């Protein structure tokens, strides 16, 4: 179990709701992954769609916490407005904060994210900000009062995996809130590596939604999270340059 704000989660895997071939596949992936929280781009959702054609009809809100996000926002003002809209429409004060700084890389704007986070925290939101793997920015966001920090592993949708594990280690050492790796993982081994570093959870979307078999990949991601977390808790052996015999020679017959 891990805790964000006042809510506990058994699953450490957070999934998105975009890019799936259809809503039925999305729902099947959520089930296969065991996720208890999904993120939803509120500006891209047609909440007036007829029943059976609305994305919300395919999310079991009794089992899954919906985390609206401010995807597509390029200014702090737009992000704050979108968060307030999500609170009115979905009845939640939780928000995944995204303020994009560059349309090509989709890297976050640090200044805009900090500004929006200050406003949203002040107005009672539970803020989970998407941010670069910048230890200083993550520390500032935690100090502002964000409920978690969400550093990227690599550019959104790139599937490159963790590019800078050393920065993530620093973030983990300094953060006093949960750390959730967000964006850039491509397969289950990337997820396992993130969890072995000690992050609290991983958020992903494209790696599942765009896989050849999304449902099977969702199940693989679940196993990656579980295996990586178990390995972190078990504690890996130190890395050594030279061999260390698995079978000591002390007591060997004839010695």
Brief description of this entry?
The chain is an alpha/beta fold and 255 residues long.
Description:
By secondary structure, this protein is an alpha/beta fold. The chain has a single domain (2-234), classed as Alpha-Beta Barrel (TIM Barrel), CATH 3.20.20.70. The chain has eight helices and ten strands. It has helices at 23-33, 76-90, 110-122, 135-144, 165-174, 188-197, 206-209, 214-234, and strands spanning 2-4, 7-9, 13-15, 37-41, 65-69, 94-97, 126-131, 150-151, 180-182, 201-204. The strands form four sheets. It has a three-stranded parallel beta sheet. Strands 6-7-8 form a three-stranded parallel beta sheet. A hairpin with a 2-residue loop joins strand 1 and strand 2 (7-9). Helix 1 packs parallel to helix 8 (214-234).
Q: Structural class of the secondary elements?
A: alpha/beta
Total helical elements: 8
Q: State the total count of DSSP E strands.
A: 10
CATH architecture: Alpha-Beta Barrel
- Morphology: globular
CATH topology name, in short, is TIM Barrel
- Tell me about the largest β-sheet: 3 strands, parallel
- Radius of gyration (Å): 20 Å
- The CATH superfamily is Aldolase class I
Helix content: 25-40%
Show unreliable segments: none
Strand content: 5-15%
Q: Main sheet: which strands, in order across?
A: 3-10-9
Number of domains: 1
Topology diagram in text:
Elements: E1 2-4, E2 7-9, E3 13-15, H1 23-33, E4 37-41, E5 65-69, H2 76-90, E6 94-97, H3 110-122, E7 126-131, H4 135-144, E8 150-151, H5 165-174, E9 180-182, H6 188-197, E10 201-204, H7 206-209, H8 214-234
């Amino acid at each position: 179990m891990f805790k964000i704000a006042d809510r506990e989660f058994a699953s450490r895997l957070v999934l998105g709701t975009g890019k799936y071939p259809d809503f039925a596949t999305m729902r099947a992936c959520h089930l296969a992954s065991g996720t208890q929280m999904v993120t939803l781009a509120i500006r891209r959702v047609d909440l007036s769609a007829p029943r059976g054609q609305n994305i919300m009809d395919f999310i079991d809100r009794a089992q899954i916490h919906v985390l609206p996000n401010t995807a597509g926002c390029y200014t702090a003002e737009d992000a704050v407005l979108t968060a307030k809209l999500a609170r009115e429409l979905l009845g939640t004060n939780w928000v995944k904060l995204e303020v994009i700084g560059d349309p090509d890389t989709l890297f976050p704007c640090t200044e805009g994210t900090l500004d929006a986070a200050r406003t949203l925290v002040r107005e009672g939101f539970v803020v989970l900000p998407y941010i670069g793997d910048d230890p200083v920015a993550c520390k500032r966001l935690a100090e502002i009062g964000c409920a978690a920090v969400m550093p990227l592993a690599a550019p959104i949708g790139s599937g490159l995996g963790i590019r800078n594990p050393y920065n993530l280690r620093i973030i983990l050492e300094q953060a006093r809130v949960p750390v959730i790796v967000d964006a850039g993982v491509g397969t289950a081994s990337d997820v396992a590596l993130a969890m072995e570093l000690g992050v609290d959870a991983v958020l992903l979307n494209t790696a599942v939604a765009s896989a050849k078999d999304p449902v099977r990949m969702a199940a693989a991601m679940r196993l990656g999270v579980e295996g990586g977390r178990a390995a972190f808790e078990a504690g890996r052996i130190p890395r050594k340059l030279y061999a260390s015999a698995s079978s000591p020679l002390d007591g060997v017959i004839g010695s």
